[in-house]
From TrEMBL, chains A, B:
Ca(2+) 2 binds at residues 263, 266, 274, 280, 333. Its main location: periplasm. Cu cation Z2 binds at residues 132, 181. It comes from Undibacterium baiyunense. Ca(2+) 1 binds at residues 464, 479. Cu cation A2 binds at residues 618, 620, 622, 626. Signal peptide: none annotated. This is Nitrous-oxide reductase. Predicted to be exported by the Tat system. The position of the signal peptide cleavage has not been experimentally proven. It is found in: Periplasm. CDD domains: N2OR_C. Nitrous-oxide reductase is part of a bacterial respiratory system which is activated under anaerobic conditions in the presence of nitrate or nitrous oxide.
Amino acid sequence: MSQDKTKEVATPALGRRKFLNTAAIASLGTLVACNEKPGSAAASASSASAAGHAASSASHLKPGELDTYYGLWSGGHTGDMRVLGLPSGREIHRIPCFVPDALVGWGVTNESKKIMGTKADGSLKYTVADSHHTHASYKDGNYDGRYAWINDKINSRIARIRLDYFVCDKITQLPNVQGFHGIFPDKRDPVDEKINYTTRVFCGGEFAIPMPNTGSEDSSKYRSMFSCVDAETMEVRWQVLIDGNCDLVATSYDGKLAATNQYNTEMGAHYEDMMSAERDACLFYNVARIEAAVKAGKFKTIGDSKVPVVDGTREANKDPKTALTAYVSVPKNPHGVNASPDGKYFICAGKLSPTGTVIDLSKVLDWFDGKSEKLDAAIVAEVELGLGPLHTAFDGRGNAYTTLFLDSQVVKWNVEAAIKFHAGDKNAKYVVDRLDVQYQPGHLNASQSETKAADGKYLAVGCKFSKDRFLPVGPLHPENEQMIDISGDKMVLMADHPVRGEPHDFIIFKRDLVRPKQVYDLNDFPNAIKDPKESGVVRNGKKVTVKMTSQAPAFSLREFTVKKGDEVTLILTNLDKIEDLTHGFAIPNHNVNFIVNPQETASVTFIAGNPGVYWCYCTHFCHALHLEMRTRMIVEA
Amino acid sequence: MSQDKTKEVATPALGRRKFLNTAAIASLGTLVACNEKPGSAAASASSASAAGHAASSASHLKPGELDTYYGLWSGGHTGDMRVLGLPSGREIHRIPCFVPDALVGWGVTNESKKIMGTKADGSLKYTVADSHHTHASYKDGNYDGRYAWINDKINSRIARIRLDYFVCDKITQLPNVQGFHGIFPDKRDPVDEKINYTTRVFCGGEFAIPMPNTGSEDSSKYRSMFSCVDAETMEVRWQVLIDGNCDLVATSYDGKLAATNQYNTEMGAHYEDMMSAERDACLFYNVARIEAAVKAGKFKTIGDSKVPVVDGTREANKDPKTALTAYVSVPKNPHGVNASPDGKYFICAGKLSPTGTVIDLSKVLDWFDGKSEKLDAAIVAEVELGLGPLHTAFDGRGNAYTTLFLDSQVVKWNVEAAIKFHAGDKNAKYVVDRLDVQYQPGHLNASQSETKAADGKYLAVGCKFSKDRFLPVGPLHPENEQMIDISGDKMVLMADHPVRGEPHDFIIFKRDLVRPKQVYDLNDFPNAIKDPKESGVVRNGKKVTVKMTSQAPAFSLREFTVKKGDEVTLILTNLDKIEDLTHGFAIPNHNVNFIVNPQETASVTFIAGNPGVYWCYCTHFCHALHLEMRTRMIVEA
């Protein structure tokens, strides 16, 4: 059944590219002209296959059937994290992080405001964000279900998500960083064998700025910053001053190396300058050496920040014996760097070059160890994949899957065959399959792809343009997340899912790797009202504390009285213990609404308004008498 | 295939109810005891049917296939409107209304702040909301694709959505209303035959308050308010002072009647008082008479509001010859009032009574016209349906579908058979089918159900609890929207969809009833920068205007300079004309991010921060050189 449809979509290559050119590559004419599609990539798209119908059905769960994988998705400029079930692609949850969320009262409750950060007047420091990448904590090369992290590019913040309750518990703003882009936790310690789990999170700084950022000097003197955040304390441990603009971050399975793919090593301020050089870099960080340098006091600090900064610029790291960083050369404005699940390679995609570059990590370590003279000897393959290669995922069977933004395709290619081809074996057929996607894919990821347990079952692709794939809803189109079955030789498109812009990266892992709790522990909240009898109003001058509990269908206080202008702090504990029995609490005209999940405590602080009666009501459907679940706030003159 | 699964779910009635009781009806024991399930409703649940597999497949579109229906969904306390495609249940769009939205910059741009409403200091008046009900404008008894409206219960606001661009264009706050709940547009004018389309929107006020709300007097003297808003100007035309708490609103196809289902006609302040009486009311409004009274000056105004208020209390409307309102008696705390597509009946569900009440509109008009002595003679059926009946939808073939909150079922029943049964024909079998849903359903609606063109194809049910239906994601469960095929005799469950709490009401209509535009008209924006040459910085003392355009992959200004403390207004016009080519604009550390769709203009005003370089960048993926699409804001001391 799905064959018919995909045949319609897979128009001949030339016509298709002409169509695509009208949108995403407008005014990129010269670039396209000088990057003609390589011969090796000319195999026709093979989206239709005999397995089509079966694969399509696989993503369509029957009512009540549970998904087998979780997906953690960056929310883009909604500033949150999305939790999906896969293969259905259903969004089960959104976790507010950087941006207020009116459903849960994130940015409304005192507890969430403390995590988000406030200005002197108590209002939120930021209400916008741009989250791109999310990755989770590791143990022994697989996810351990403790934490996930996510970035905010606009305001250079990193948020941590607790994967027991699926909530954000800490946010750190990085000093001396603008455009915090890529993010990746380490997988083990580079020195201590016993630490076989994540203790650091690496953060790539994209925009180059004056250091410190107080003037507007010559842009060629601007630099970017690579940061290491402590996974537990969420404090910034150290930073590295670098050349070029970080896009993504990857970490090695042995804990020794992190890398960022760097574009604009030209240090240009205008886009044509940023793409003037033919090659940029995959920039490697020698984690143990950097930490030794910091320990030895070989750092400076910048501006008001106390964070140690070591010098990782190209100029300062020419000697391999002492180098903290290594700039492996990769073609033109690379986009994406991904670690293969066998632990051997990092792969950079060319973006403005039609190539994928395979870097052998053992050879990078050889260079640091003085065993290899030429750093670029670590490049074991650089092969043509198609136009606009961006990101790469893996199936654990030796194949890589790379998005081709300009070609609107996913290309499946074999890494060892690519290495053979690069070594001179022109008979090595490294391109295994191509699949048209709809349209202009950015990130992609496969089930368990970023772990040693990559299982090559499902591939999700985030397509930036949906164009004609969904009913029209005005000028703002959804993006199109497509699910692909990669269990066979041929990729098979399973389903289209519309998604609010603009999610970027995501990870997909087996459902048994997390063990969420569904009811809170009353004792986790120091301000919990453990007994309805503790309810009441306590006045201390103009400051008033209102203590209340909820048990369907009533709040413990039937009414409470405050005075106009009082600073009221209302503490609400939900004493209902039954899973899924959440209550809400709204106060008309006082800009208050928040929820309390079973056994949760939350508080809000507000100034009582004009005299009158205000019906505070339960906003989260709880009970047959939900509409009747209210309390009256009486404000006296 | 779906048979096996539904069999598992449909456990015997008693065991199932025991299970359900643990959650939503905790502490409602006595209520359940006094409302034992009626004999007529004892037919076993029939979720499994031979049509099961086919129906299930129908909701599973193949990649690239378009939905055939739109759904407009209230967003609940996310304060927005959701746009779904059906039968797939995919969310294609969210339209920000009452609450800021970091994706589009709603609440960030000057244009959206003007619609939302600001305080004297320019900050938003409200950032929380609770939207429940959404309905669209009519012509000749079907949707005409002009507008939809949606309520905010917390702050008594009504928002209008333009269905050409799928954006909110006006918000009005209702005076003297707390807990604005139900909402419904009229379907034609009650007097002027030529006006066969929507010109009024009726708004039900739920919470009773002192009028004016300045004190805390005896709660038995509190009253609620029913409001009429002009569909074009969005000004409040008139209000009616009433007894009881409005839940939903319905309007007749002839334009003559509106109605609200009223609970708490006891005017109690505590939940046990609110359910003390055995019967409440379906409250009818005689629209022509109310407008004649307003025209004749028979009104007062309340507090600061200039809106004419007529007296619609029970006491003041005993004489049918002059009555503006009519309180038809319905059982205990009714929930939901729905107009049948044949134009004949309004149906109220009993909530705390296991009944549905069918009211014959012609007989209500007879009472107003002095042709009927007893108002309650308009009740042509009052039949037992099951426990916790809430809302009713229709298939256009004479059948009604009512959610049973406590029974976690949808009951399908035949309206004319119910009328016969009520008239004494005890052989009339009015219950046609029952289907278990998962779990505790609130609103439901069927395709085209609220129009004369009800087509009985799909039924969506908003289940308030999802419990075990999706992968666990911590204490806050999603709700479960279920799609049901109602085209045959038996209802067939098609699919489960998780949804972020807490949507309430929704409408479903054929896709050809709206004609969205996908590119804006440059001329619709008075401040549009129509030519990149108009770009630049204009200073007027401390006020600075920055004019800029976007065309992938560049902004028209490469950099711009302002001074610390300047009040900067930045105007950005997206000159890209290609559908789906949206750009974003973020300024680090200045809390600015917003999008401009093709040919759209938006502006932001902010205070320039500390001296330094700020890379403003495109946040909405647009082009292969998207990362390079930036401009530098240089802030001087």
